[in-house]
Amino acid sequence: MGAARRTTREIGLALITLGVVVLLFVVYQLFGTNITEARNQHSLAQQFNAALHSTEARTTASPSTATGVPGSTGVPGSTGVPGSTGASGVTTTSTTGPAPAATTVPTEDVLPATPAGGAIEHLVIKSIGVDKYVVEGTNEADLRRGPGHYTGTAYPGQVGNAAIAGHRTTYGAPFFELNKLTVGDAIDITDLNGRTWVYLVSQAPIVVNPDDVSVLDPTPFPQLTLTTCNPIFSASTRLVVFARLKGQAGLVEAPPAVSPSKPTVLPGDTSPSQPTTATTTAPPTLVSNLGQGRSSAWLPSILYGLVFVVLWAGTRLAINRTRRWRRLSAYAVGIAVCAVPLWFCFENVILLLPQSI
What we know:
Elements: H1 2-59, E1 65-66, E2 103-104, E3 119-125, E4 130-136, H2 140-143, E5 148-149, E6 160-165, E7 186-190, E8 196-201, E9 206-208, E10 222-230, E11 237-248, H3 298-320, H4 327-352
Parallel strand pairs: 4-5, 6-10
Antiparallel strand pairs: 1-2, 3-4, 3-7, 5-6, 7-8, 8-11, 9-11, 10-11
Helix pairs in contact: 1-4, 3-4
């Protein structure tokens, strides 16, 4: 009789533990993911600031000048003297007359190198307390780090539709209060060249279906589009905010929008990490909750889950052999030890779920 009672009690405790684990997973989704996002944002901030410093150093660097002599190839080392051979190996010719002053390569169009997964923009919306670094891409791995720029859409300051997606209830919930934006609210976006573009909300937020990709269509004027899930704690629809470019911060008059042409690259630079054209071979797709989870997360989810089960079973055995006045401390130690594999299990389980923002 005693053995049956103990078995029943252990089964009951196991079911209670399972229920608690499910509740903890919900708490992890709403709050624990914020810790992951905050850690990623800290890393993105460091990368972004490093890129800005690189841009400033490149702007003042002397190698950015060319001789500018008529007939010169413009390659550093080219003399421009009739019949001379420049660094490129091409014979150059020149007319007589004084050489004009040296010219500088326009560094405002040079895009500094960005580490893989690094920030490409700094998004600030003061009216709703948003201060986040934006990454390229809108898949789940991208949005775990912060708001994501829709690949294939324009970039800030360009003619076209620059679109950004962000979570509303998890991973920092950057767009949690996107619905509170009103016409005229300012949205500031700083690019990798340190230029801050100011957009003003042009109309009240609208709600569309997840498959309505028309909100990402190119526009003949500079526009910013922000998307997130709707309603809160659901992804059945999408909340969309449109804003139009007012100009560049610090300038009295709005400058002309950046042309979507190929940027200038200084000698020794690699190809730009941030394309400046809004054209793409495939149209962007509005972030949807219909996608499949990451199947590669199954193995680590199972392994961390098994580690948790083994540790919790060991904790229960230790508690049963501990005197009553020491059981509270045994529970505290056991829970702390079990929380570690449970956290990593949650981090992988959430990747198995269909993507939602």
